[in-house]
Q: What sequence folds into this?
């Protein structure tokens, strides 16, 4: 019922279409016809450029390639001409059925330039719709293009729809088919039939999926996507409560004659624009003309790391760019703020480990406005600045001790350390050196460049090998010779602050001598006093001297006898 009410309301409104609205459709049609001529000549311009190359026999191989590409353009033009004529025929049929006199010429005539199948098969008929007498008729266009049901068109409009979509698929498949040359075979694109999509992003996603099942030249993908989307229209709509309305029904339902013809001319514009873009893609496959450049500059590229004596190779080239069409440069997902002289300037701080990876995209557009996007990537070796001061007289390694060693090969991104008379193991950012039973050992530092893959020895350093120094004995916090508390119960064997070694010593046995104690001295193991020793310390007089005789063992497994005397 709602659908019937909509149709009745639309019919009543159509009966009263104002002259101002009809005149607006006439103006729209005139602007579309002008745009059609622009797209017609744009495509012809690209075709003419290709013809110039084809007749230039100064470079035979290029001329031969251009002639082969002209055959592809001919295929494109044949496909396009068939659709242009089909639409022109529909326009003429609509005007004829509406009783218009198409034989009139001059200022009173409708047709100002006839269709020429020989000289200009791609150029639509030029019309002056202001001379149409029955501008507001709508039954005739509906009958020809729709039939009776806007959800299921049966007229010539459904043939127009099918042929338009077939043209889209045939066109992109013709453009995508391209010889791989010496590699053998051809690129190709199996065009999908897409007429249902949520939005532009969804349409692009569906096209990308079709790319994955075809073999499309990477350089052609953006252009093919642009052509395909420009010729893709959503098939079904909901219009004023009527569901599943076909695009033909939505476009031409109760459409006055001048509006229907304007819509048909708009389809011709879509076709001529796609044809011009397609010819531009074919034209781009041969050198010259596709991209405009008005500035040149010299560029030199070389390694970011070099050391004295290294062989260096620098690549020098001339770069061209269009100062009026600066590229769009992205860096790690974001746009670069400064772009000039055809370059994007990426500014960041060196961070991370030994290497920093920068990447993004750079996009330029050809004369037709089709974007060309390529990825860029740059790896930078990160060198940590470091100064070194050495004391040759203190070059010592200790037996049985994990000697920590740090080494830096300045000017190289990789440091290699080797030992003679000692073994080395990597730990964190440094090494652990373990001397053997020798008097001296030697460490050699080498630098390696991951760019040149060369390793260079930067110097050797000799170290004396010595036993660990003896530790001191502490009773609680008191060193030997100091006052100690009678309440203390624990012994420690360690290095005093002036020895900066982090070595741990373990007390194996102890014996306590207390001044004035007539009995046998208490003995024990470990670092904690037993009950007998604690009891005797509590009974000792203030000012008494006590002495500990101990046996300790360190990380080198050497047993040492240590004695400590303290005053209570």
A:
């Amino acid at each position: 019922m709602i659908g019937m009410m909509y149709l009745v309301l639309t019919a009543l409104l159509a009966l009263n279409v104002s002259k101002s609205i009809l005149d607006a459709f006439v103006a729209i049609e005139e602007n579309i016809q002008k745009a059609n001529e622009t797209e017609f000549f744009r495509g012809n311009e690209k075709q003419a450029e290709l013809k110039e190359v084809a007749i230039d026999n100064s470079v035979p191989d290029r001329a031969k390639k251009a002639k082969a590409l002209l055959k592809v353009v001919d295929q494109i033009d044949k496909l396009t001409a068939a659709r242009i004529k089909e639409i022109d025929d529909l326009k003429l049929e609509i005007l004829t059925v509406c009783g218009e006199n198409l034989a009139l010429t001059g200022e009173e005539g409708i047709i100002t330039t006839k269709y020429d199948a020989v000289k200009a098969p791609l150029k639509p008929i030029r019309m002056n719709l202001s001379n149409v007498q029955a501008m507001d008729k709508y039954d005739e266009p509906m009958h020809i293009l729709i039939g009776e049901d806007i959800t299921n068109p049966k007229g010539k409009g459904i043939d127009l729809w099918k042929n338009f979509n077939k043209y889209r698929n045939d066109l992109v498949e013709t453009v995508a088919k391209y010889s791989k040359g010496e590699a053998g075979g051809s690129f190709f694109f199996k065009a999908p039939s897409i007429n249902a999509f949520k939005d532009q992003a969804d349409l692009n996603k569906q096209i990308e999926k079709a790319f994955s099942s075809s073999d499309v030249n990477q350089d052609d993908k953006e252009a093919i996507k642009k052509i395909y989307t420009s010729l893709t229209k959503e098939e079904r709509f909901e219009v004023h409560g009527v569901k599943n309305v076909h695009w033909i029904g939505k476009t031409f339902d109760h459409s006055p004659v001048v509006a229907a013809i304007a819509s048909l001319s708009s389809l011709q514009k879509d076709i001529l624009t796609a044809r011009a873009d397609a010819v531009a893609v074919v034209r781009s496959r041969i050198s010259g003309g596709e991209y405009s450049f008005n500035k040149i500059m010299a560029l030199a590229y070389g390694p970011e790391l070099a050391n004295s004596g290294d062989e260096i190779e620098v690549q020098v080239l001339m770069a061209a760019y269009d100062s009026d069409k600066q590229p769009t440069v992205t860096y790690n997902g974001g746009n670069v703020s400064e772009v000039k002289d055809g370059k994007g300037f990426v500014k960041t701080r060196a961070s991370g480990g030994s290497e920093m990876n920068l990447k993004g995209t750079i996009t330029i557009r050809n004369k037709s406005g089709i974007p060309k996007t390529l990825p860029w990537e740059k790896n930078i070796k990160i060198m940590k600045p470091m100064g070194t001061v050495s004391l040759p007289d203190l070059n010592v390694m200790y037996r049985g001790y994990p000697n920590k060693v740090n080494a830096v090969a300045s000017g190289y991104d990789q440091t290699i350390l080797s030992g003679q008379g000692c073994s080395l193991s990597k730990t964190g950012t440094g090494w652990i050196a373990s001397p053997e039973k020798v008097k001296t050992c030697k460490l050699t530092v080498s630098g390696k460049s991951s760019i040149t893959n060369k390793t260079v020895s930067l110097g050797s350093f000799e170290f004396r090998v010595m036993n660990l120094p003896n530790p001191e004995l502490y009773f609680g916090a008191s060193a030997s010779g100091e006052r100690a508390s009678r309440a203390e119960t624990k012994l420690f064997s360690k290095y005093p602050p002036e020895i900066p070694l982090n070595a741990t010593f373990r007390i194996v046995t102890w014996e306590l001598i207390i001044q004035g104690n007539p009995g046998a001295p208490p003995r024990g193991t470990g670092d904690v006093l037993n009950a007998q020793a604690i009891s005797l310390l509590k009974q000792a007089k203030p000012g008494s001297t006590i002495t500990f005789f101990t046996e300790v063992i360190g990380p080198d497994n050497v047993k040492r006898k240590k004695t400590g005397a303290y005053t209570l």
Remarks:
- The domain at 472-567 is CATH 2.60.40 (Immunoglobulin-like).
- The longest strand covers residues 455-466.
- The chain is about 30% helix and 25% strand.
